[in-house]
Amino acid sequence: MNITTVIGYVLAGLLAAGIVFIGARFLVAPRVAAAGYGVLPDLDQPGAGAYLSVKGVRDIATGLVVIVLMIAGATQLIGWMILAATIIPLADAAIVLRNGGSKSTAFGIHGVTAAVMLITSALLLIS
């Protein structure tokens, strides 16, 4: 495995672990997780907690898919999957901005995540 692939795998693993952690936080501490996301819903409204749980489960599943692909050694597939999934933090940034969230959260969290994902996918795809 060359250094580019190793760096790509390390970044992919960090991204996967990070999104699994974030997903778990949406299940365990939804108010804290939603605040970290950048838009705090009114959790007293019926069904608001359900949407946060859905986000948590989907985040966990997304991270697990990357982990499974890493275990399988599917370097190119991981690169393509992460590239395709970059739409998630880009959309998250737009959602935060559209709903009055802070620009620093939109760009500093979601924007930086998208940039790291693009770098990671490039490293894996050129391997």
Largest sheet: none
Judging from the principal axes of the Cα atoms, what is the shape? globular
Radius of gyration: 15 Å
Summed up, the domain count is 1
Class per helix and strand makeup: mainly alpha
Element-level helix/strand string: HHHHHH
Q: Write down how many β-strands occur, each being a DSSP E stretch of 2 or more residues.
A: 0
- Point out poorly predicted stretches: none
What is the typical, i.e. mean, pLDDT? 96
Keywords: Membrane, Transmembrane, Transmembrane helix
Protein name: DUF4267 domain-containing protein
InterPro entries: DUF4267
Organism: Mycolicibacterium sphagni
Explained architecture:
By secondary structure, the protein is mostly helical. The chain has one domain (3-125). Helix content is 83%, strand content 0%. The chain has helices at 3-28, 30-37, 48-72, 75-85, 87-98, 103-125. Helix 1 (3-28) packs across helix 2. The N and C termini lie close together (9 Å).
Secondary-structure map with pairings?
Elements: H1 3-28, H2 30-37, H3 48-72, H4 75-85, H5 87-98, H6 103-125
Helix pairs in contact: 1-2, 1-3, 1-4, 1-6, 4-6, 5-6
Short description:
With 127 residues, the chain is mostly helical. It has helices at 3-28, 30-37, 48-72, 75-85, 87-98, 103-125.
List the keywords.
6 helices; globular
